[in-house]
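CORE FACILITY INTAKE
Project code: CF-77B
Contact: R.S. (postdoc)
Sample description: multi-component assembly, two entities in total
Requested service: structural model of the whole complex
Turnaround: standard
Below are the sequence entries exactly as provided by the requester. Do not edit them.
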Amino acid sequence: MKRTKIKDVLLRTDYGSDVNVRGWVRTKRGSKAVSFIALNDGSTIKNVQIVADNERFDEDLMKLITTGACISATGELVQSIGSGQNVEIQAKEIEVLGTCPADYPMQKKGQSFEYMRQYAHLRIRTNTFGAVFRIRHNMAIAIHQFFHDKGFYYFHTPLITASDCEGAGEMFQVTTKNLYDLKKDENGQIIYSDDFFGKMTSLTVSGQLEGELGATGLGQIYTFGPTFRAENSNTPRHLAEFWMIEPEVCFIDLVELMDLEEEFIKYCVKWALEHCKDDLEFLNKMIDKGLIERLESVVNTDFVRLPYTEGIKILEKAIADGRKFEFPVSWGTDLASEHERYLVEEHFKKPVIMIDYPKEIKAFYMKQNEDGKTVQGTDVLFPQIGEIIGGSIREADYEKLTARIEELNIPMKDMWWYLDTRKYGSCPHGGFGLGFERLILFVTGMQNIRDVIPFPRTPKTADF
Amino acid sequence: MKRTKIKDVLLRTDYGSDVNVRGWVRTKRGSKAVSFIALNDGSTIKNVQIVADNERFDEDLMKLITTGACISATGELVQSIGSGQNVEIQAKEIEVLGTCPADYPMQKKGQSFEYMRQYAHLRIRTNTFGAVFRIRHNMAIAIHQFFHDKGFYYFHTPLITASDCEGAGEMFQVTTKNLYDLKKDENGQIIYSDDFFGKMTSLTVSGQLEGELGATGLGQIYTFGPTFRAENSNTPRHLAEFWMIEPEVCFIDLVELMDLEEEFIKYCVKWALEHCKDDLEFLNKMIDKGLIERLESVVNTDFVRLPYTEGIKILEKAIADGRKFEFPVSWGTDLASEHERYLVEEHFKKPVIMIDYPKEIKAFYMKQNEDGKTVQGTDVLFPQIGEIIGGSIREADYEKLTARIEELNIPMKDMWWYLDTRKYGSCPHGGFGLGFERLILFVTGMQNIRDVIPFPRTPKTADF
């Protein structure tokens, strides 16, 4: 008999029909006469209840139906009053596809997330992680849908790179060299001409610069791929390997960029509210009681648009009024997380898009304002998460860009191609970057970034 | 004035309205009195024609409007007879946003693909590569749409890995070690405890094994991400960094798997025919005159389903009848490309799904048939491309799988988690892998895999 997904079974009302379901046993309970098996197949957070009259089934078979076992059950769809769902299945046949020994690590309820991380391959079978990864899927789909509908092209920028975007951080080296036989030149420098790419290469920290190359041909593109940081940061906010979304748009100005950022993130959150209702309700109940309310408020709120200079004034006034911060604030300094959270969570009580940052604290490629001091950067600051998006209008003027590069002493010899975009038919353009896992943290209410990616890569951890 | 994309302008019929377009000049020609500017903005392969009365514009401005320059043009939408489109724009205002010096590398028509590869950042602005990358985008969207509609979850498997899937090939090492100061133990082995992940790590060659972990929790998943092979292959078919799609489905059997493979690939090709008409017509005209016919034939044909043993018989009969092949054929050998092409292009004249391969030529994880000799592998063989999909039902039986692993002497100590899926609630499952660039080659008619990815990574090449 053809299998029906549990998600679909739970919507059916053709009581009396026979159905077949297959999945993993969440719990089995019951009396001497009857067993109730809660079965889940990953298609939904909800279980279907299988009701089995014990006399109908072999005792040895029933003993194999333990938490974690994989079974196939065929039976009659009947209306349910006690199972928490509208339907349950009165079992006629049960087959055990895979037994589950008693040492199954996910057997107990209420295990800590830290414990479960050791079994990342099995935690996927739990309610919380099923919910998180179904939502993660939905956010990816929402992102592709959003950009596709707007005529953006998905653009695959390279992962292995010979250039270091803005020197953004420590990088992983990629090599096929035999480390037991490293040849060096007369100055003691390792020779890379015999490495796979004929030069030293690393894993990319951002696809933005290559994204700009795509946009200046296709008009508007977005990347959605892995990026890497070899930072030795053991925090709930950092991963060594994470996914980024980086749209890049030609002929856009600062206001249009902010509009795009706000529309984009609202679209994603709205998608979650509409498509992940069951999973969000579970997380709202079990993980974060304020989750759904917070998501709804983001969708229904106009984001504040705040020049950096105004933001500093607000913070200075707060300090004058007695608000204490750990770090000092003055024009020209990078805001600390506590300052961003004050603006978002206390002062405005809504998301803030901060713009026009001092050029000294932002990257070389940002478009310089006419004041000579600020650049057209845009950071979207969110409650709980802090910076969720960082973007900017890019400097399109060849002279201004190269002057800034020289001023900052950025080695550009391997990046002639980037300057070419400003040399040949340069165009105004801008874009932003969103760390995918940051978005998933916000949408799921989870607290640790290691719990929103299937197999986290962090210092000393590359299991699975 | 708000910009309209050229794709949208070309669909408009409200003649007399003013519109603004921005993009890159493809050509400028004309007479003393009037200039015709073909403008492209990447939104479509089609150009819009800007008609400029020379007396209306400054002579110096008009001189800056050269091939490759970026301009903004505002004017009246008028019906066109000569431009090849229904509409053209009678210019009222033109602004040059970015000039283009005479040494612009993409200035001439008819440059070779090999030449253009050196300027991969600028080839995106040409007709051919614009078409290829718009189609590439559409194929990615089709893939997500297909799986999302079927209830698969997009699952991000890790790129950096400490395990070597089936020893599938040479791998890139990933390290943060200081290569100038490599510490070794008393046996002369490099110590990896101080490397970023505390052990030796590489870039993944496949997400399948981790995909299986996802499927056995979420029911059915697909990956779509970069994979890496450090093979020193300088061929038109190999990349060191490429994108793979790897769905994995629980509770599927061999026939259902073949159905899924066939439906999937037809869906993608049909999507291209429906959504990429202009780009396909261009490629059909300029690159491969048989392209659209070939795509249509795939969509409208039932794929042949052929056991390996039957395939061998057909080939042996062909040889007996006088057909010459370079490589010998007998039961147990891996088919060469020439054999696959004979079956697909000459014998059946349609795509072939070959199944039930000898276990010796397939991976350890494939489900063993009861004959003790063959496994439930499925390769989808396509005209021109050869193998476009490789898949299998996986061995779900713990004893059989571990016996096979021991037989083949595969080091599994770092892969305890993979065996866990068979130990705890094992379930029948299967899946397949599709090399994304192989699909793009087939759908675009391009001949070299370096021309269907924006910035190809190949031996000695990691530019951009």
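Facility notes:
- Chain B is about 30% helix and 25% strand.
- The mean pLDDT of chain B is 95.
Invoice: internal transfer
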